[in-house]
Amino acid sequence: MLSSKNVVAAWNTTNTTTQTQTQTPHRPSLLHPTFYWGYNCQVLFSGWPGSDRGMYALALIFVFFLAFFAEWLTRCSDADSIKPGADKLAKVAFRTAMFAVKSGFSYLVILAVVSFNGGVFLAAIFGHALGFAVFRGRAFRNVGRVDG
């Protein structure tokens, strides 16, 4: 017969002296509920970039260019970037393919930001901002044009 000392309820986690079952030790989680600053994180893949500062810098550059190229692909799929005389089916196929690739890049950026690392977040923001300014900003479209 079991005595009441040996029966431990599942919600009682403070009384460890009377527990007879083995417990797994608490594993620290890499998922943070708030932004944190540091180079020891996981971005997109398990174990990457790890605790190496050089790999963390590479991860930031990778996220930056993912966001940058997502803006470029948005610009490439615009209607004015396709030849006017092209077949309508070819236009639709081209724009659909560009949208699919852009969506993939954008979702990878979102997954990287979900790491809650502040550096990754800033790399994504700066990549999108610079890509927008270079490829879709009005300031660069009128360069070289003389008004008046």
Report on this model:
The chain is an all-alpha fold and 148 residues long. Helices cover 49% and strands 3% of the residues. It has helices at residues 53-76, 88-113, 118-136, 138-141; strands at residues 41-42, 49-50. It has a two-stranded antiparallel ribbon. Strand 1 (41-42) and strand 2 (49-50) form a beta hairpin. The longest helix is centred in the C-terminal third of the chain and has 26 residues, at 88-113. The radius of gyration is 25 Å and the shape is elongated. The N and C termini lie far apart (99 Å). 17% of the residues are buried. The model is unreliable at 7-12 (pLDDT under 50). It is found in: Membrane. Belongs to the copper transporter (Ctr) (TC 1.A.56) family. SLC31A subfamily. Keywords: Copper, Copper transport, Ion transport, Membrane, Transmembrane, Transmembrane helix, Transport. It is a multi-pass membrane protein. The chain crosses the membrane at residues 54-72.
Secondary-structure blueprint:
Blueprint: E1 41-42, E2 49-50, H1 53-76, H2 88-113, H3 118-136, H4 138-141
Antiparallel strand pairs: 1-2
